[in-house]
Amino acid sequence: MTFLRSTAILAVLATPALAADPELTVFDWAGFEEPVLFQGYIDKNGDSPTFALYGDDDEAFQKIASGFKADMVHPCSQMVSKYRDAGLIEPWDTSKIPAYADLDPQFNGSDVFHDDEGVWYIPTDWGATAIAYNTEKVPAEDVESLSIFTNPDYAGRTSLPDSSDDVWALAYLATGVTDWTEVSDEQFQAAADWLREAHQNVAAYWSDPSEQAQLMASGQVDVAWSWNDGVTYLKADNYPVGFQRAPKEGSSNFICGFVNMKDGPGNEEKVYDFINAWLAPESAKGLLDTIGYGPTTVAGMETIKDEEAVKTGLGPIDAPILNQTPNDPQLREKQLAEFEKIKAGF
């Protein structure tokens, strides 16, 4: 993806939708409208779905809760309870999703995703959040610790995601917490204090990966807490980027997927055409090449297991990993509120 393309993504964020097939509206992350991710849908239906794009899970939820109509939404796993508790989604009919049985249990093990009332979530993709850095300006030893984000030498040279989940994953790791399903008040406060310190170094909070990539490519920042996407975009433009997934405190992994909206305005059969195209093994290489993420099916991962991008961006690491699995919704709301205070300087 070139930065001309990245700029185009930012531009469409201000538009209601990228109009195509009027019988399916997908509310998705910016960058995920690439046809290579769902070519099977186009082959069957003759066009891409209509896409509306967002850059943040909470932003997407608020728009849906306020009445925006879509057939499918692509939240990450910790948002599933929020959609379900609000009565916005309905169970999937897995008999219409042949690849459901091939989902890797490590990505589909949560009882938040499926219970006695049905399957509420189809995990489709996963990735890492770690340190992206300019290898020509940042010594390798400086990214051996997450303390680079609080190091005074990097004041005004860092960027963090405008995403509560990702910044709290960073803060918990930096303060010694690797499991956010059980966080004490003391651990929460230690992470909040660390985030306030890290905030002092932040030049800008990025709202989507293309923005993060542009911040680094322009020279505005040299270090970012990044998903695979931003690193993939920078590499495509020959930017000297490193992706340190094994600082001593560790890094984070996340899972994203699709929910089926209740009373969606489109054609329900096309909802299943789309999810089946996403889960097809032949979509895995496009997902890796375009976004840098891995598929959640065993068959999909098998097709890309020897790719260099898997080894560097998704493979095993010798460091702790905080998995961004579904956590306590009340804790998540507390984190979100505290993050807003921190960004405002309080």
From TrEMBL:
GO biological process, one term: polyamine transport
GO molecular function: polyamine binding
UniProt keyword Transport present: yes
Residue spans crossing the bilayer: none
InterPro entries reported for this sequence: SBP, Sperm_putr-bd
Pfam family, one: SBP_bac_8
Localization (cell): Periplasm
Stretch forming the signal peptide: 1-19
One Gene Ontology term, aspect cellular component: periplasmic space
Keyword Transport: yes
Keywords: Periplasm, Signal, Transport
Xref: PANTHER family: SPERMIDINE/PUTRESCINE-BINDING PERIPLASMIC PROTEIN, SPERMIDINE_PUTRESCINE-BINDING PERIPLASMIC PROTEIN
Name of the molecule in the record: Extracellular solute-binding protein
Organism in which the protein naturally occurs: Paracoccus aurantiacus
